[in-house]
Automatic annotation (TrEMBL):
Main subcellular localisation: membrane
Subcellular location: Cell membrane
EC number: 2.5.1.145
Originating gene: lgt
Keyword Ligase: no
Name of the featured protein: Phosphatidylglycerol--prolipoprotein diacylglyceryl transferase
Family: Belongs to the Lgt family.
Function: Catalyzes the transfer of the diacylglyceryl group from phosphatidylglycerol to the sulfhydryl group of the N-terminal cysteine of a prolipoprotein, the first step in the formation of mature lipoproteins.
């Protein structure tokens, strides 16, 4: 068994103002996305110019925050939202959904692409590799904040989270997600997007990769207490939400390469 490292979840405190590691992870993730986007505008296949990156990142940040909060409220807090609609505004109480954030980013970039007359498919291919690092950092923030821990287990690397009232040895599932959603998915998308690919296949790989990884890690992650298992006595809400991502990702990749082959003939 490993010992959980005692890390103060508050990264910076100035008087009554506190900045948590989880919130800081969003800022660092957006900063990295901006830096990588600026670098990639020099690629001949880039649909964005350097001067458009700042606005794209701003639109995406709004999509992440608004979509993530709205998605969590609808996907995970439906009953609470019905009882108290103002709860959706109390972001300081926690609660963000990746699936909602992903939908928010897609919608935000759709609106941005229309306003700038940019090809939406090309823009989504540009954006996809920018996402995983922020995801990975967010999972580290969850680990430090002792949120979204794993199911009880006896594996040698299990640990007891001090905030767990049951004091059970659990999977550090946040670290699994950091490694798979953050590091592995970034490396895969960075490599795949290093040269021109059929339209929407990079985005498709991002959807497929995240969906598969999230579906797998959910087997080690403790289901939300107020939801439990959704289907068949073993499937979680996160797994159900990942299935459409997997299906859409496969469709985009297959259709993209089919169109490329058809155009070649």
């Amino acid at each position: 068994m490993l010992t959980y490292p005692q890390i103060d979840p508050v990264a910076i405190a100035v008087g009554p103002v506190q900045v948590h590691w989880y919130g800081l992870s969003y800022l660092v993730g957006l900063g990295f996305a901006w830096w990588l986007a600026v670098r990639r505008t020099s690629q001949p296949w880039s649909v964005l110019k350097r001067e458009q990156v700042d606005d794209m990142i701003f639109y995406s940040a709004l999509g992440v925050v608004l979509g993530g909060r709205l998605g969590y409220s609808l996907f995970y807090g439906g009953d609470r939202l019905v009882q108290d609609p103002t709860w959706i505004l109390r972001v300081w109480e926690g609660g963000m959904s990746f699936h909602g954030g992903a939908l928010g980013v897609i919608l935000a970039n759709f609106l941005y692409a229309r306003s700038q007359r940019i090809d939406f498919g090309g823009l989504m291919d540009f954006v996809a590799p920018l996402v995983p690092v922020g995801l990975g950092l967010g999972r580290l923030g969850n680990f430090i904040g002792q949120e979204l821990w794993g199911r009880p287990t006896t594996v040698p690397w299990a640990m007891v989270f001090p905030a767990d009232k049951l004091q059970l040895t659990r999977h550090p599932s946040q670290l699994y997600q950091f490694a798979l959603e953050g590091v592995l998915l970034f490396c895969l998308l960075y490599w795949f997007s290093s040269k021109k690919r059929p339209r929407l296949t990079i985005c498709g790989l991002g959807l497929l990769g995240y969906g598969v990884v999230r579906f797998m890690v959910e087997f080690t992650r403790q289901p939300d207490g107020h939801i439990g298992f959704d289907a068949f006595g073993w499937m979680t809400r996160g797994q159900l939400l990942s299935l459409p991502m997997i299906a859409l990702g496969i469709y985009l990749i297959v259709s993209g390469y089919r169109k490329q082959r058809a155009a070649a003939h």
